[in-house]
Amino acid sequence: MTATDPFTLFDAWYAEAREAEPNDSNAMALATVGADGQPSVRMVLLKGHGPDGFVFYTNRESRKARELGEGSKAALLFHWKSLRRQIRIEGAVSLATDAESDAYFASRSRDSQLGAWASDQSRPLDARATFEERFEAMTARFAGQDVPRPPHWGGYRVSPSRIEFWQDRAHRLHERRLFTRISSGWTEGLLYP
User: Fold this and answer.
1) Residue 110: inside a domain, yes or no?
2) Beta bridge partners of residue 175, listed in sequence order
3) Residue 115 in domain
4) How many independent structural domains does the chain possess?
5) How many of the other CB atoms lie within 10 Å of CB of 150?
6) What is the pLDDT of residues 100-112, one digit of tens each?
7) pLDDT tens digits for 107-145?
């Protein structure tokens, strides 16, 4: 069976979600596993995608970054409740290029840029005031100049080996289309609901 291109299908569903979802249509759950085997999941925002993978950005010293070490694997989940759809993605993780990370960082709001410098993401914080003081210190440090990307901040790419498109159907008779990467491209099949 010749497979539909899963990225073409993703683009179509994503375009519909951008129109239908009231908030953060680009929000996706990111699941990782620590060295101790403990799974962890959190929401991140999709900031780029294509045949090479799905890209998001974060502090590279955070818990998620430790769990996303080079060569590891991760899973993503988009859930668009208003469309009654979800997309599950599994694959290998790699770093986005410095050029990609620089370009995206430059597109962020100034306060978000300053926050990336001020935050020791995922580490204990004694009081909110400490973070706010650090933010004000970064505001003063970069006053009157562009805020460069911190060396500890950048992107990750999940290159899919599996993509499942789930569509809600009446009486829980859902439709599940599974795309699996093979050397010549993709195979496509169905899963029982």
Assistant:
1) no
2) 167
3) no
4) 1
5) 17
6) 999 999 999 999 9
7) 999 999 999 999 998 899 999 999 999 999 999 999 999
